[in-house]
Design goal:
Chains A, B: This is Glutathione S-transferase family protein. Chains A, B: Pfam families: GST_N. 2 copies of one chain form a homodimer. Chain A has 217 residues and is α+β, with helices and mostly antiparallel strands. Chain A has 2 domains: 4-85 and 199-208, Glutaredoxin (3-Layer(aba) Sandwich); 91-196, Up-down Bundle (Glutathione S-transferase Yfyf (Class Pi), Chain A, domain 2). Chain A is 53% helix and 7% strand. The first copy, chain A, contains 9 helices and 4 strands; from the N terminus they run E-H-E-H-H-E-E-H-H-H-H-H-H. A 4-stranded mixed beta sheet of chain A has the order 2-1-3-4. Chains A and B meet through helix 4, helix 5 and helix 6 of A and helix 4, helix 5 and helix 6 of B.
C-alpha cells in the first residue's frame, strides 16, 4: 500500500498550517516519496477505531504495509528512515538528528505550547493574563540557548535533517507572538525551512485538504 | 572509551530519583552494559563547555567513541540500539517503541511538568492555585486514554521496551500527586517498571552519586 497518513477535514483558521500532519507531509516531500491522506472529521478522530491507533484522539496517524503508528515526531523519524534526504548515513549523525527531534518535542515545544494555552486555549481563564509574562520569559531563555547552539550555521547539525524539520515545525508556533523576531538567527532559520520546496508543497496540500466551513460530524 | 553520562553531584530531596540521568542509567542496566558517570555541579552544567553539548544547561549528556548527545529520550534510544534488551528485532516493533518514547515525552510529560510547575517551581506565584484544577483535569484525561491503551497488558507493546522505560519514568512524576492511584492499571504498570532489577540498580547508583549537602560551586 501507499503509505497513508490521517489529517483533519477542517480546523479553524488559526490552526491551519500548524496541525501536525504537516510534519509527516513535509517529511514525505523531502524524501520524494508518494503518500496518501485519509481526511477525517473530528468525531472520527475521537472515535474508538481511530483511538486504537492514536489513543489520545489526534491526528496524524501513519500506516504502511509494515506498521501503524502515531506521534508526528515518530512518524517523521519513520519516514526519514525510508529513503535518503532527512538522515545522515552515519550512525553518529543519525543519533544527533534524533537528539534534535527530541529536543524540539520535549525541550522547546512544551514551552511554546504554554503560550498557546494562555493566548488561545485558556485565554478566557482568570489565571492566563497573570501567567503570560512568565511563559514568555521561559520561552525567551530557551530561544537564547537554541540561538547560541545554532550559531551562524544554516541547520542544527550539517545538512538539513529530520531534526531541523521538527525544530522548524515547532518554532513556527511562535509566528504570531513576535518572539522569533527577537532572535534574528532563529527567525532566519525558520524562514529557510519554510522556503524549502518540500515544505511549500506540503503546506499547499495541507491547506487544500481543508473544507472551507466546519463539516457536521 | 566506556560510554559516559553526566549527572548532578547534588539536587534537593524532592528531585532525587527524578533527574533524567535515571533514564540513561536504567537503559544501560537493562542492556547489561557498563557505563561511567561524570558527576558535575550546577555551575559546570550551566557553563560554556557543558553547553557545547547540552545547549540548555541540563543533565544528562552522553558520550561514547562515536557520538556525544543530549536529551534523555535520545540517549535512551541510542543506548537501546547498542545491544538487545530494549528494542524488538523487527523494524515495525522498533517504530512502535519509538512511538511510545515520543508519546511519553511529547504527549504525557509536558502535562505532568505543568503540575510540577504549579506545585513546586511556581507554587508561590499568584496564578498557580487558580490554575491547578485545570492542570489536574488535563492530566486525568490523558491518563484515562493511556490507561485504555495499556488495557490489561503488562507493557505498552509486547515485551518491555525503551518505550516503557520512558513512559514509566514520566509517569513516576505523579507519585506525590495521588493521581496514579485513580488509574490502578497505570499505577500497577509504574510499579512493574520500578520493580525491575535494572531499575533498582540504576536508582541505587543514582542516589549514591549525590552529596548529602549542597556543594558550593
Amino acid at each position: 500500500m501507499t503509505p497513508t497518513i490521517t489529517a483533519f477535514n477542517w480546523v479553524p483558521d488559526f490552526a491551519r498550517s500548524y496541525v501536525r500532519d504537516m510534519r509527516a507531509r513535509w517529511a514525505f516531500e523531502e524524501i520524494g516519496e508518494d503518500y496518501a491522506v485519509s481526511v477525517i472529521d473530528h468525531a472520527t478522530v475521537k472515535g474508538p477505531a481511530h483511538r486504537r491507533v492514536q489513543p489520545f484522539g489526534q491526528v496524524p496517524t501513519y500506516a504502511d504495509d509494515e506498521v501503524e503508528i502515531f506521534e508526528s515526531g515518530a512518524i517523521a523519524l519513520h519516514i526519514a528512515r525510508r529513503a535518503p534526504g532527512l538522515l545522515p548515513a552515519d550512525r553518529a549523525g543519525q543519533a544527533r538528528a534524533e537528539q534534535w527531534v527530541i529536543a524540539a518535542l520535549n525541550s522547546v515545544e512544551p514551552m511554546i505550547m504554554q503560550l498557546a494555552m494562555v493566548d488561545i486555549f485558556e485565554a478566557d481563564r482568570p489565571w492566563s493574563a497573570a501567567r503570560r509574562p512568565q511563559v514568555v520569559e521561559d520561552i525567551r531563555g530557551r530561544l537564547a540557548d537554541l540561538s547560541a547552539a545554532l550559531g551562524d550555521k544554516d541547520w542544527l547539525d550539517g545538512a538539513f535533517s529530520v531534526g531541523d524539520l521538527t525544530m522548524v515545525s515547532v518554532l513556527r508556533g511562535l509566528h504570531d507572538s513576535g518572539l522569533l523576531a527577537e532572535f534574528p538567527t532563529l527567525a532566519a532559520y525558520v524562514a529557510r525551512g519554510e522556503a524549502r520546496p518540500a515544505y511549500r508543497r506540503a503546506l499547499a496540500d495541507h491547506l487544500a485538504d481543508f473544507e472551507a466551513e466546519p463539516v457536521p460530524a
